[in-house]
Specification:
mainly alpha; about 375 residues; Farnesyl Diphosphate Synthase; metal-binding; globular; Terpene synthase; magnesium; about 0% strand; about 60% helix; metal ion binding
Length: about 375
C-alpha cells in the first residue's frame, strides 16, 4: 500500500491535542451580536427548506448547516428580508456541487457531454453553474427567453437569492459578485486537484487558492447590500478596502481551519494546520501560536484600514455613517464566523478555553442553538 504525504502528516498529528484559547479578547472591540430577527428568521428558513428542498439528503445537509444562525451572526444588523437572501445564497454555496454524481449531465450529444474524467467533469459543472448564475443575476443581454438548465439539483437554489439581488443591487455589484464567483470556482478546481492526488500544497500555494475557496470575497461583494447602504465608489479603488476584504478573509480561513481540524483528520487534511506543520517543520503548538498572532495582526490591519477609510469621508457625515456600517459588516463576518464555526463543529479535542467552559455551564441561551452563550445586542 502506497503511503502518501497525507498519511504521513496524519500520523504526525495522531494523538496530539490542539489547545485553542478563547478568541473573545481578540474580538472584544468588535460587534459580537446576533440579529434581533433570529427567531423569526429561523422559522422562515426552516419552513422554506422543507418546501423548497425535497431531496431528503440535501434537506438534512441544509438543516445541519444551521444557516439561520450563520446569517444572524454574520449580519446581525441586516434587515429580515436581507437575512433571508443571504441564507439562500449561503445554502446554494454550500450545497450546489455537493454531490458530483448527482449532476444533470446532458446526454444529447458528445459535443455537450463532458469527459468522464472527474477533473474535466468538475470544470464543466463550474462552467454551467456560472452560466446559470449569470442568467439569474441579470447579466446576460439580451436576456434569453428560457432559463439555462441548472447543472445540479442544488445549483437551482441560486435563483432564490438572485431575484432579490437582481432587484436591489446595481449592475456593478452584480458583476463584481459574478467575477468573484468565477474565481471561487477556479480555486475549487485547484483544491480538488490536490485532494484527488492525495497531496498537500506548499503553504503559499494553499493560501493562493484557499482565499478563493473560502467564498468570503463573494460575501464582500454583497457588503453594501447587507449593510443597507452604498459607499462612495472611489473607495473600492483604495488599498484600504482591499485590506479589509483580504484580512477578513484571512480571519475566516484561520478560525475555520483551526476549529475544524478534527473533522479534517478524517478527510483530506487539506487545511491550514496540517499544511503548516508539513511546510514549516514547526510543531502543533508553534503553528497555533503563529496563527493566533496572525489573527491579531489581521484584526489590527482591519482597524487601521477602517480608520483611514473613515478619514477619507470625514467631511460627509452621511457617507461616514454608511462607511462605518459597511466596515461593521466585515467585522461581524469575523466575529459571527467564530461563533458559528464553534457551534457547528463537534470538537473532540481538549480545549484550554474559558468560552468552552462557559458554554458547557450555560447551554441553550439562544433558541435553537444548544450550547451558545447569549449574544443578543452585543452582550456576552
Amino acid at each position: 500500500m502506497t503511503v502518501t504525504i497525507v498519511d504521513e502528516v496524519a500520523a504526525k498529528l495522531k494523538g496530539q491535542t490542539l489547545h485553542l484559547p478563547s478568541l473573545r479578547d481578540l474580538y472584544a472591540r468588535w460587534p459580537n451580536e446576533i440579529s434581533p430577527h433570529y427567531d423569526q428568521h429561523q422559522k422562515i428558513i426552516d419552513d422554506q427548506i422543507s418546501r423548497r428542498i425535497t431531496d431528503e439528503h440535501a434537506r438534512r445537509k441544509a438543516e445541519k448547516i444551521n444557516v439561520a444562525f450563520f446569517s444572524a451572526t454574520w449580519y446581525p444588523r441586516s434587515s429580515l428580508d436581507r437575512l433571508e437572501t443571504i441564507s439562500w445564497y449561503t445554502l446554494w454555496l454550500f450545497l450546489w456541487d455537493d454531490t458530483i454524481e448527482d449532476s444533470a449531465i446532458p446526454q444529447a450529444s458528445s459535443e455537450s457531454q463532458p469527459s468522464t474524467d472527474k477533473n474535466m467533469k468538475i470544470g464543466w459543472l463550474h462552467q454551467q453553474a456560472l452560466r446559470y448564475v449569470k442568467f439569474h443575476l441579470g447579466l446576460v443581454s439580451p436576456r434569453p427567453a428560457e432559463e439555462p438548465a441548472a447543472p445540479t439539483r442544488y445549483c437551482a437554489l441560486f435563483k432564490y437569492a438572485a431575484e432579490p439581488l437582481r432587484a436591489a443591487c446595481t449592475i456593478t455589484e452584480r458583476n463584481r459578485l459574478y467575477q468573484l464567483l468565477s474565481s471561487y470556482m477556479e480555486c475549487c478546481e485547484v483544491e480538488h486537484g490536490f485532494v484527488s492526488r492525495a497531496s498537500l500544497p506548499k503553504l503559499d500555494e494553499y493560501w493562493g487558492h484557499r482565499l478563493g475557496t473560502s467564498g468570503v470575497h463573494t460575501y464582500g461583494a454583497l457588503g453594501e447590500y447587507m449593510a443597507g447602504g452604498r459607499i462612495p465608489p472611489r473607495l473600492f479603488k483604495t488599498a484600504e478596502i482591499a485590506s479589509v476584504w483580504f484580512e477578513t478573509n484571512r480571519q475566516v480561513v484561520i478560525v475555520n481551519d483551526l476549529i475544524s481540524l478534527k473533522k479534517e483528520m478524517n478527510k483530506s487534511l487539506h487545511s491550514l494546520v496540517p499544511i503548516s506543520l508539513q511546510d514549516t517543520g514547526a510543531d502543533l503548538d508553534e503553528v497555533v501560536r503563529f496563527l493566533l498572532e496572525t489573527l491579531r495582526i489581521s484584526r489590527d490591519n482591519i482597524n487601521s484600514a477602517a480608520d483611514r477609510l473613515l478619514a477619507m469621508v470625514g467631511e460627509d457625515p452621511a457617507a461616514a455613517a454608511r462607511v462605518q456600517n459597511y466596515i461593521g459588516s466585515f467585522q461581524t463576518i469575523a466575529t459571527g464566523n467564530y461563533w458559528w464555526s464553534y457551534t457547528d463543529c463537534v470538537i473532540m479535542m481538549a480545549f484550554a478555553s474559558p468560552i468552552h467552559t462557559y458554554i458547557m455551564q450555560h447551554p441553550g441561551h439562544v433558541t435553537g442553538v444548544p450550547g451558545l452563550p447569549s449574544l443578543v445586542n452585543g452582550s456576552n
